[in-house]
Design brief:
The protein is of the alpha+beta class and about 210 residues long. Helices cover about 30% and strands about 15% of the residues.
Length: about 210
């Protein structure tokens, strides 16, 4: 049976382009062939490509890509803003195990501990958003929980402020979404190291320490 071929023009972010270019060089193919292999493999038609065994699900989503994680309101001084969440989906009792199914225990544990720490701030509420957690008022995000498809369970979080603005002697923070720094958390030590960044990000954005 003859298989028809359709040519697609796909827009990708600069970060995705960089990751795909590196993977294509590793496999000895061009980026277009890699993209075709990922799509064909995802929908069950790997063909004869050298990348048939490539697992696209191992690529985590690009936290810098435009998405619903973007803050929808400009930052305002604490005294001038109402801390009402934009919807009733934001809660102070978010339980990760109930909201996220089929994730590694370590990813669930780390996410819950980050949420618990953020909710120590009285005004803060949280809600699940796609593969991550959003907080209101915005100052901290769990960009995504790592799934069983990744090599190292854990979470990737983002804190309001540039990396140089934090007390980060281990240099674990990296540039992230606009005005945020990101950090991959894969161990208990990294989790403990990251917790103070939550309060530092809140103070940096709203000009006061935890109530």
């Amino acid at each position: 049976m003859t298989t028809s071929i359709r040519v697609l023009n796909v827009a990708i972010t600069e970060t995705t382009d960089r990751l795909m270019s590196a993977e294509a060089r590793r496999l000895g193919i061009d980026v277009s062939s890699l993209g075709a292999a990922i799509l064909n493999g995802y929908f069950g038609d790997g063909g004869d490509s050298a990348t048939t065994n490539f697992a696209p699900a191992q690529l985590e989503p690009d936290p810098e890509a435009p998405s619903s994680f973007a803050d929808h309101r400009p930052p305002q001084p604490l005294a001038d803003r109402a801390f009402l969440a934009p919807s009733d989906q934001y809660r102070r009792d978010l339980m990760v195990a109930h909201s996220f199914r089929n994730y590694p225990p370590r990813s669930l544990k780390f996410a819950q501990e980050l949420i618990n720490e953020a909710l120590l701030i009285p005004e803060v509420t949280a809600t699940r958003k796609e593969r991550g957690v959003m907080f209101w008022p915005p100052f901290f995000r769990i960009l995504y929980l790592r799934s069983y498809r990744t090599r190292h369970p854990g979470v990737v979080a983002a804190f309001y402020g540039e990396p140089a603005e934090f007390d980060d002697p281990k240099n674990l923070l990296r540039g992230g979404p606009k005005s945020y720094s990101r950090m991959a958390i894969e161990s208990e030590k990294e989790l403990a190291y990251a917790l103070p960044f939550i309060h530092a990000a809140y103070a940096r954005r709203y000009g006061k320490e935890m109530s």
